[in-house]
Amino acid sequence: MTFEEERYEKISKIIGLVDQSEISSIQSVVSGVIDVINDPQSSAKDLKDIIEIDPPLTAKVLKVANSAYYYSLNKISEIQHAVIWIGFDVVKEIALSQKVCEVFEQDETVSGYSGRSLWKHSIAVALLGKMICRREFGERGENAYAAGLLHDIGIIVENQFLENEFIDILRKTEQEKINLSKAESEVLGYTHTDIGKMLTEHWSFPEELVVAIGNHHNPDKAPQEFSKFASTLYIADYLCQERGIGYSDAPYFDPVVFRGCLKRLDIKEYALDLIVKDMEQEISKMEGQGLFQYDKTKNQ
Amino acid sequence: MTKRKTNKSIEELKKENLILETKVKHLINDLQLTREENEISTKNYFEIYSSMERKVEERTRQVEELQKQYQQAQRLESIGTLAGGIAHNFNNLLMGIQGNASLMLAEIHSGHPHFEKLKTIQKLVRNGSRLTRQLLGYAREGRYEIKAVSLNHLVRDTSDTFSTTRKEISIHRELDDELYAIEADQGQIEQVLLNLYVNAAEAMPQGGKLFLKTMNVTHEDMKDKCYKPKPGNYILFSLRDTGVGMDRGTMDRIFEPFFTSRGLGKGTGLGLASVYGTVKAHGGYIDVYSEKGQGATFKIYLPAIGMKPGKEKSEITDIMKGREMVLLVDDEDVVADVGDEMLKKLGYEVLVARSGKEAIKTYESKWNKIDLVILDMIMPDMNGGKVYDRIKEIKPHTKILLSSGYSIDGQAADIMERGCDGFIQKPFSMEVLSETIRKLFEKRDDRLS
User: What ipTM was reported for this prediction?
Assistant: First the structure.
């Protein structure tokens, strides 16, 4: 068995475990919303049907929709009303983030990592990725948002199914002052990007998302057609770590790859500064509204 | 100094300019996207708006339909009140005719030249009384003799009788052996069944098939109806004919009294009206489904009870006399006079009171001698219910027989429930009167022995 095959076997086994766990419970809703995002023919009713099949999610979406963050003047009591008052795209985002965050609920901090800090990082990457797409490319950036939320899902899987190894990996990053991916490769023989790639592939996500998630540490290796998207995700991930927003899995930056991405996308650093500033404002506003208190609302 | 400042400013300005340009680009992109999103939102808004509008239209239609049904029910109700009032007065007249005929018959032999004519008068009064009974049935009054009955039994009996009179109609029965009993007035339910058969037969002048079916259902099975049934078990009796059927307009009015689609003089227009009244009085529901030329189906739902139907005793129709003292209370002179004479003929000692107050006065002075009170329900000064209560206060075990042709708000039924001994429907013949009284006294004897 070659090294590649062995790695594939190992990850497949883990994905088999994921299939029977709570993590897989987010698949149908998340896939559903991503389908709505990628199908221009889909309507608000499709989205409503996807959300309303999941009553706890519906409640969470309505709660967020009614928060001061979205300035809704009317009391929103139905997904349909939410679509009217705060917008189709916004409801898609809320549904996606509220569903994905269900698997990030682990509050114990080990070597700087906690489910909560990773969630904050993921939200920030999602928001920044979307904003870059919108402002720089004039694109809607909904897939960038989804990719941001899910790019580190491999870490969640490790945390849950390779608990001991994961603690070793975290200790290793701390002691040897290396990035998470390096420690993962040494301990496991693969990284969370490999898991994320195979899992999202297994869940039949659009190829663009699978590639970006699988290559969010090495966008240069992404196939040409997805290069722009993967680079955008890399930039968003890089900047959030640089600014210390939430958990950082790669505190030892590689500016060479980053500059390569900037060049590929023809984005100036000062333009990114402007976007990041706005993103940081949004994040602190969300924090002010208690929108990261997912673990508390879940236990209530 | 100035030059340096200027140089720096130019550099700074260039940088600022770049940033401003970027900002403008960002804003333009954002604005463009927001505009697109707005368009989508507007589209969604109109989609949702129009779907809501459809919902509103649908609800409005439902409300209108309910309003129509409500008006229909109200109209039936007011006609019912009118019909009940007519029946009341008519019954008193019939009572007078019946009584006088009975008295004359008692005084002559069967060979008398007027004997047959008097018998005919009695027969006509009975026919007239059947008519008023149907009117009362429609007015939802006169539901007095309630007991557990088996509907299957009634359906079998009545349909057997009916089939002998209409040989051109074949009857198919599908009766549920496990059918629940119902709490009902047997006579009235029989009347309901017969009226439905007659109606079906009239719809099939050339003959046809009549399908009778009984089954157990619950309120859950009646979900799609326009009315909301009380929760519980019901029995369903359905009757389907292969007759001419009817259109929507006829179906809407079919339960109205005096409404008939069969041409003047052919039907009384009371049959189905009384069916409707009786079913309502028994806490049931009735539906009709039909299309022109497609036959008609009537469905009757009656509340089920959890007990087995009891057995009926056979009846004796001989005149039985007695010597007890009877206080007859009725504000109608015709009824009072005739009743007085009838009772005397039967051998009873009679006291007559022509009002509630008079009745109380008489009873207070002679309570230890009076064996039975025959009490009218409706009296202008003091109604039967109050008189009843007062008499029971004086002597709780007094025998009281209610007599009425009509009652308001089920007063008679109410008193019967409070433990009244019997009920007699006006107009009554001497035979019925004697039998009812004797039964009442026998009941006392049972209790004593």
Answer: 0.80
